[in-house]
Amino acid sequence: MASIADYYAGKNVLITGATGFMGKVLVEKLLRSCPEVQTLYLLVRPKAGQSMQERVSDMMKCKLFDRVREDNPDFHQKIVPISSELTQPALAISPEDVERLTSCVNIIFHCAATIRFDEPLKHALQLNVIATQQLLNLAQQMHHLQAFIHISTAYANCNRRHIDEIIYPPPVEPKKLIDSLEWMEDSIVRDITPRLIGERPNTYTYTKALAECVVQKESSKLSIGIIRPSIVGASWQEPFPGWIDNFNGPSGVFIAAGKGILRTMRANNDAVADLIPVDVVINLTLAAGWYTAVHRPKAALVYNCTTGGINPFHWGEIEHHVMSSFKRNPLEQAFRRPNANITSNYLMNQYWILVSHKFPALIYDLYLRLSGQKPQMMRIFNRLHKAIGLLEYFSSQDWEWNSENMNMLMSHLSPEDRKTFNFDVRQLNWPEYIENYCIGTKKYVLNEDMSDIPAARQHLRKLRNIRYTFNTLLLVFIWRVFIARSQMARNIWYFVVSLCFKFLSYFRASSTLTN
Ligand SMILES: CCCCCCCCCCCCCCCC(=O)SCCNC(=O)CCNC(=O)[C@H](O)C(C)(C)COP(=O)(O)OP(=O)(O)OC[C@H]1O[C@@H](n2cnc3c(N)ncnc32)[C@H](O)[C@@H]1OP(=O)(O)O
Ligand SMILES: NC(=O)C1=CN([C@@H]2O[C@H](COP(=O)(O)OP(=O)(O)OC[C@H]3O[C@@H](n4cnc5c(N)ncnc54)[C@H](OP(=O)(O)O)[C@@H]3O)[C@@H](O)[C@H]2O)C=CC1
């Protein structure tokens, strides 16, 4: 049987969401490990004053593509951007482009989605469900299509504790929901959203579940694979360890903790942290594309792409390794020394938010105000609290995913493909991965230079000295206000001191006796 790279040789591939985190890694890996691939058609929209061509050429200049550039400096010739706004009718693809795509595309990878947890339902539905349906309609017109791979999420069915590799009945018939929301005003939709999403925490997981159902409906006409990654993190090995380019999911939390801003968060120390490296997800996706096209399974195959059941790691361990990594490789200009703690106790968390977040923010803003600058810390903390409030649902509980199809797929790969498209997470060394992840956030998200680490360490020492000085001043202040002025406080103070003194004398006497 043809190897994965042999299969992709001469093939035309259509990718949505190529400018996103996972899409970029997919494009890079295809170009690097399947160098004979014919053309990659990327559906891209113009954004922030940039045309789609400018966006794609900027993307190809990014460090992620360094290895491909080395192997083949002309790799950009294989990339053809196609203008498309997925929320528009017929995906806003021109008739000429439709003609071109329908005549030559062999395989589709559908990565585009809104992954925001606070997306209004109508917009999430438009992009995650309606656009998926429109892409499926386009796929059906393609003369040479061999596989349609849809990227879903392991949390699409997070209302269940155990999740098999099947498509569960949708919470509502997608078409009925689309039809009824069409005429409703946004304010009404906002009001009924909590009732609609039910046990799911947000519109993202809800619409991703509906999208799976829409995809499944076409499985008699198309060969379909559905990939369900859990929490996608920085790369493990490829193209280099620790690559990450966004603040989503845990990355923003790690950065906020490394900067000393985040000191407390609600999470369950003993719950499995189902992180999955982005390169693992992409290797599995490409292998699933190959398998779907070659074996043409009768029903859509679902691949739960998770680590918890195979090589579990827990939030408590993540906290420990993130903190020790940022102490070894500090971020520049930290607000305080990194020292975040996770707790599942609501009251404890609220206490630490008050003492370790709001109080220092208040003092710092006061300092900014007094020095004629604009206060900003409270605003940053409010945004942080909103973000972690949306993530806590995922860090406070456990899920169990069946990953038989991932194992089945692995068993079909040749030894060579298993190495080139490695998704065997049993080999993942978590402490090393987390260290590279934290360094990756420093280098690639914050664009900080590793040569500045000595200065960053010096800054942490300065913060430690400020803390010692502040604590001493606080003690002196308490002394002045309470002890020196009130007879009762003085009596309590003398009582505590004499008690300590008695204890000391007792221990000294008993240790002399035993000697
Ligand atoms: C040590 C502790 C260990 C414990 C550690 C537990 C971790 C527990 C993780 C669970 C993780 C589950 C993940 C589920 C798995 C999926 O299914 S994956 C889908 C994942 N999706 C997400 O993570 C999206 C979540 N994010 C959101 O929904 C929105 O970003 C939020 C949180 C509502 C914030 O919205 P917003 O306030 O409008 O801010 P947003 O527009 O996103 O960003 C504004 C700017 O701030 C920047 N920014 C965003 N976040 C940050 C940040 N944290 N810091 C600095 N800047 C930031 C942005 O880059 C952006 O910059 P510009 O582009 O404007 O220059
Ligand atoms: N990140 C994660 O932890 C996880 C992600 N997933 C799934 O993986 C897939 C990729 O996620 P990820 O790469 O992280 O997401 P990103 O937010 O990084 O990328 C989303 C992509 O979708 C594109 N897109 C969004 N709206 C439109 C639109 N209206 N028209 C055209 N393109 C649009 C974006 O383009 P533009 O650059 O123009 O905005 C971008 O390329 C998604 O389906 C997501 O549900 C699943 C589990 C976890």
UniProtKB/TrEMBL annotation:
GO terms for biological process: lipid biosynthetic process; long-chain fatty-acyl-CoA metabolic process. Residues 15-284 form the Thioester reductase (TE) domain. The chain crosses the membrane at residues 468-486, 492-509. It is an enzyme of class 1 (oxidoreductase). It catalyses: a long-chain fatty acyl-CoA + 2 NADPH + 2 H(+) = a long-chain primary fatty alcohol + 2 NADP(+) + CoA; octadecanoyl-CoA + 2 NADPH + 2 H(+) = octadecan-1-ol + 2 NADP(+) + CoA; 18-methylnonadecanoyl-CoA + 2 NADPH + 2 H(+) = 18-methylnonadecan-1-ol + 2 NADP(+) + CoA; (9Z)-octadecenoyl-CoA + 2 NADPH + 2 H(+) = (9Z)-octadecen-1-ol + 2 NADP(+) + CoA. It comes from the Eukaryota. Pfam families: NAD_binding_4, Sterile. Residues 357-448 form the Fatty acyl-CoA reductase C-terminal domain. Its EC number is 1.2.1.84. One of its GO terms (molecular function) is alcohol-forming very long-chain fatty acyl-CoA reductase activity. GO terms for cellular component: peroxisomal membrane. InterPro entries: FAR, FAR_C, FAR_NAD-bd, NAD(P)-bd_dom_sf. Catalyzes the reduction of fatty acyl-CoA to fatty alcohols. Catalyzes the reduction of saturated and unsaturated C16 or C18 fatty acyl-CoA to fatty alcohols. It plays an essential role in the production of ether lipids/plasmalogens which synthesis requires fatty alcohols. In parallel, it is also required for wax monoesters production since fatty alcohols also constitute a substrate for their synthesis. This is Fatty acyl-CoA reductase. It comes from Salmo trutta.
